[in-house]
Amino acid sequence: MEKSKFCTSIACMDGRIQIPITSWLKKNYGVDYVDTITEPGMDKLFHNPSKVEEIKSKALISVNAHGSKIILVSGHHDCAGNPITKKEHLIQIKEAVSIIDSWNLSVRVIGGWINEKWELEIL
Fold it and tell me: What is the pLDDT of residues 17-61, one digit of tens each?
């Protein structure tokens, strides 16, 4: 039996964004499962060192135990956990991508924005 393909989503806990993220990742990367790491306003948490370590430990489980080869970190329109402008979100998402890249996990790391139509835009 062939091993299922996994990827990882690091995103806000907002339920409105989960289906667009999962659908996009399955369609564009052919994965079977999306491991999800969620917190309110996830993109802002990459400025908190203890939160970054917590996120990293969870991502390592996805990469090492499930063989995830792709990590998507995202932010979204109308975020109650991080109520800032889109421009500020995009800066935070790009910074988060850089931080995750610095972990040297040998995976592809991408950033995404879920817009007001609940569609995922890749940065």
Answer: 999 999 999 999 999 999 999 999 999 999 999 999 999 999 999
Which residue from 85, 102, 96 is spatially nearest to 42, judged by alpha carbons? 96
Residue 17 in contact with residue 42, Cβ under 8 Å?
Answer: no
- 100: nearest Cα among 15, 19, 8, 14: 8
Three-state SS annotation for 32-92? CEEEEEEECCHHHHHHCHHHHHHHHHHHHHHHHHHCCCEEEEEEECCCCCCCCCHHHHHHH
**What percent of the residues of the chain are helix, what percent strand, and what percent coil, each to the nearest 5?**
45, 25, 30
User: C-alpha 17: how far from its chain's center?
Assistant: 11
Which pTM value belongs to this model? 0.94
pLDDT of residue 119 exceeding 60: yes
Which residues neighbour 22 within 8 Å (Cβ) at sequence distance 6 or greater? Answer: 9, 34, 36
